[in-house]
Amino acid sequence: MVEWLDMGGYAAYVWPVFSVAFFLVIGIALTPRIRHKRIFEELKMDKEAASED
Q: Which pTM was predicted?
């Protein structure tokens, strides 16, 4: 198993790139959810402001 983690001597290059790619994919997956929540809250505030007028 240690040989697999060593990646043929390229572990110093492979694992950092793998980590960056992993976090980018997670960020790409979460961004639409965060934007959706923010837009939904803005629309809710606009609706409340319109009903007060």
A: 0.65
Q: Measured between alpha carbons, how far is 5 from 2 in angstroms, rounded to an integer?
A: 5
* Structural contact between residues 49 and 43, judged by C-beta atoms closer than 8 angstroms: no
Cα–Cα distances in angstroms (integers) from residue 18 to residues 22, 23, 26, in the given order = 6, 9, 12
- Please report, in tens digits, the pLDDT of each residue of the chain (53 residues total): 788 888 889 999 999 999 999 999 999 999 999 999 999 999 999 999 998 86
**13 near 21, Cβ under 8 Å?**
no
CA distance 9 to 16: 14
